[in-house]
Amino acid sequence: PQSSEKAKTIVHAFLKRSMPKMKDEAIQDMLTRKAVVLEHYHKKKTKQKRKKTKGFTAKQRRELRLFEIEPEQQRYAIFLPLHELWKQYIRDLCHGLKPDAQPHMIQSKLLKADLHGAIVTVTKSKCPSYVGITGIILQEFKHIFKIITKEDKLKVVPKLNNVFSLELDGFISYIYGSKFLLRASERSAKKFKLKGTIDL
To answer: Which SMART domains match (predicted)?
Structure first.
């Protein structure tokens, strides 16, 4: 029975390959008892660690002048289309500024809305030189607004100790800057009091 021996050799080799952790004696014992349970052998895969992409630091952003607006671009007329887009965005956000709309609901949505493109006016301030500044908000940071005026002048106005008014379709909203010291991205989760106070 040459074929019988050949079959044993093939089965033994197959079992050795399928179960590399088992010794020859154990495999032979399994063949003798004719009770073979094949095990699945997992090859351990080495996981490759993903490299996290790092953004620019604050110092690098300043050096690259990422947030600076070039003098030739500091023109009020350039940003009027941005204001028109902002007005449409607010109308969609508030489902249309209708006369019967509840003022406190519109106010709460405006306080959490993106203000880039809005026309604001400084109505009250501890520093008299800021009062009356009107223009389109080009950039909002945690502590300041950058506003372009009709005279094509870029004004940096601090939020602290200033009250801003914002008018759209006859609805006037007031922003108390001292309560507004947040980045634009952080305001969506902030709960605002509808009645603010400022020590002027």
So the answer is: POP4 (SM00538)
Q: What is the pLDDT of residue 64?
A: 79
Distance (Å, whole) CA 183 – CA 85: 21
Distances (CA, A) of 21 to 12, 24, 32: 14, 10, 19
Q: Is the distance from CB of 114 to CB of 187 less than 8 angstroms?
A: no
Contacts of 170 (CB under 8 A, 6+ apart): 97
Nearest Cα to 113, choosing from 127, 82, 92? 92
Mind giving me the DSSP string for 136-151?
A: EEEEE-SSEEEEEETT
Pick out the chain residues at pLDDT < 50: 198
CA 158, CA 102: separation in Å to the nearest integer?
Answer: 30
pLDDT tens per residue across span 48-101: 777 666 777 878 877 777 778 888 889 999 999 999 999 999 988 887 777 777
- Here the tokens at position 88 are 């449409």
Which pTM value belongs to this model? 0.64
Tokens representing residue 119 in the block: 């026309």
Q: How far apart are CA 144 and CA 180, in angstroms?
A: 10
pLDDT for 38 equals 56
- E strand or H helix at 174, and its extent? strand 171-176
| Domain segments of the chain as ranges | 75-189
